[in-house]
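Technical appendix A lists one of the benchmark inputs used to test multi-chain prediction within the project. The record comprises two sequence entries:
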Amino acid sequence: MTESASGPSSPPAIEADGLGWTYAGRSRPALAGLTFRLEPGRTLLVLGPSGSGKSTLARALAGLVPHTLTGTWRGRLRVGDMDVETTPARFLGERVGLVFQDPDCQLVMARVDDEVAFGLENRGWPRARMEARVPEALAQVGLGGFDLRGTATLSGGEKQRLAIADVIAARPSLIVLDEPTANLDPPGMYDTLEQLAVLARRREHTIVLIEHRLEAALPMADDVLLIDDEGRQLTFASADSVGRRAVSLLRRSGAWVPGAWSGVDVPAAGIEAAAETIAARPVRRPEQALLQAVDLGLDYPSDESGAHRALDGVSLEARSGERIAIVGPNGAGKSTLLFVLCGLRRPTRGRVGLRSIAGAGGGAGGAGEKLRDPSRLRAGEIASRIGLVFQDPELGFVARTARDEVAATELAARSGRGRALPPPDSDGVLARFGLGELAGQDPFRLSQGEQRRLSLAALIIRPPAVLLLDEPTFGLDRRGTESVMTLLDELRATGQAQLLATHDPRLLPHCDRVVALDRGRVVFDGSPERFLAEPPYSPAEPWRSGTGSAAGLALAAGTGSAASAGPAASAGPALAAGAGPAAGAEVLR
Amino acid sequence: MSLVPASLGPIRPAFLTRVTPAARLIAGLTWLVAAIVTLDPIVPIRLTLAAVAALVFWSGLPLRRIPRRMAPLGFAILSLTFFSIVLAASNGDRSLAAVLEIGPVRITAPAVSAGLAIGLRVVVIGLTTLLVFGPSDPTRMADSLVQQWHVPDRFAYGTLGAMRVAPFMADDWAVIGAARHLRGIGAGSPASRIRDAADRLVVMLVAAIRGAERLALAMDARGFDSGVRRSHFRELRVTWRDWLTIGVAFGVAVAAVALPR
């Protein structure tokens, strides 16, 4: 511990002067003209919309840009006394630790102690020092005693804290975290931010934190760097001086701000047209249950020593036009439930029934139609009744261009018979959702936000009666989230019932009902207002509004009164806006 | 579905867990050679007995757990044995007495013997794999190959990283199939099913390559293969246990082949 006190060195921790970077093969720069100076021991929060080059800055600080990735460099960047452009990556690597977004893509070893030691081995540390340092680093992130655990058995939050232990083990002077909480459930996010706040307060390391969620990250930041979607610097200022001006800049930039979604935000240009189409309130046919699940039970395979069932007595009904949020910690059974509801897994007990919307193009549909077991439906029958959008939209793409992707379900449903019919209007759908220019693109080449929108746009022409979504907004900034919700509103207007498995408490006010799972059981079924007021989990803090309460930190003064009073207050405006079932649409307009 | 245990570290501290993986690999190879160079079933039977004894007494794997670990090979063992017996050339030799005759199918004693010899060899290969890889996790194997045989870091730890990510590919395959099924795509004629499988494979490979790129970037960010000489958190030392293991294994292999049958 004594050694690390010497961490902060004399020159500024980071000095950027006109820094720019263009990836090989791209015409637009990822970063342009960044100029700022960060003193050692301070914590810098980097904010900006998706695609603004925040990750590129993280990679540059660690020397991956320009040394591992190829492109064109401009300007100057110094980390401590090293010039990034001319210093070999391995010298930078000794000073800079980089934590990525997805914990599953950065853990290398199967066992926790090996994992922490990996970076030290690469740097040639003697064994005796490693043996002393590994447990120390684990203890610093609250993972003391985890040495012999398998990395695959850790929860998301534990994995991300392990990734932080990996980098602090080598005692870097600079730690760079690229959206470290984007993939975590509320308790994992809470854990991770709490450990980060502790780390920031110790001031042994300079920290660069990239985070969409201002309300969670601002309290621990000393300085703020704001980048726009062209990769240009909008502002660099101390966190204390970030006042209303910066908040309005942020709103425009698409980052999340405290009390976001209070309805005053201007929707992004491409989305406005789409928002027009949801002017009409969702058509509600309250009498018709499109999905009915009765007493679902699913046992884990016998060799998994699960003390609880994957699903245990879950009953659920979704009516036309209804939007239900399914929440719960990782492993609560949310994804399993979605798989059972659409017939991809058979429950051990209970049954699921689906019906198509009366009068919809499904053919046999009608108010009197019987509920059908999804696992017995033929491929041609199932698409009209239920759809599933996965957390990772990439895996769901079925075509080579965005245009074909949007038409695919319709063409499969016609299955050759409809050659005489005009082709589906894919371009029209894409244009309406701001994807018009991308019609000829390979879905795999789109950004994360574009992929999510395309996966929903692909359901517009032939919408299923029930739509299941696994983490529909995960990893998206505010602008991305808004456009996804706009699409969902349009789909709901067809009478669709929607079930969203989500970790994002900000979506709850836009749902009609919340169903909370814990260890395979339903522990709550009621209004979002009631859920947010009294989450059925312990501890309850992470589940309250957003991450405003994370790490028990109050917001810095001057960033807006709504959020500064803590979790209950920051839930206020969102709740007021989401009071009615159709309010989601209004808020988005 | 793997012969290598999913649990990490030794099941219980057993003799073979304290033998370096490289020594276990050499010891195992002597048995594989012995099993392959012989044609009769006697040698594989002897080696099978020796391997089971070694698993139970020196690697700490309880007898009742062995069948489950061998299950992935079950189909291969049974089908190989069956077809080797049924299709053996000696079945057509009318000078040999038939052990079994059902209609046109005629089976002779040499065919049974040769078929059993082939099936039992696969049993020996499976059991030896358990002895070599079972007592420690894959990380130790990579450490051992790098430290003792000077296998390049990039190859050994790169492979290790890939192995850790491999289970995600199975999940991806299922998710891809589910997505297509729910959109009503891929059903129909056998030709369209084949096309569908090819499309699924492309999507899975693209996802796998993406994952590998991200992992490689994360490894580079932590200084992997940056030109610094790597040190080792777990140093493997060659001890008398290694030499004893190799010696005993070699002795058993020679005895299995040389003893009168």
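Residues 186-202 of chain A form the longest helix (17 residues). The CA atoms of residues 562 and 569 of chain A lie 6 Å apart. Comparable benchmark entries are summarised in Table A2.
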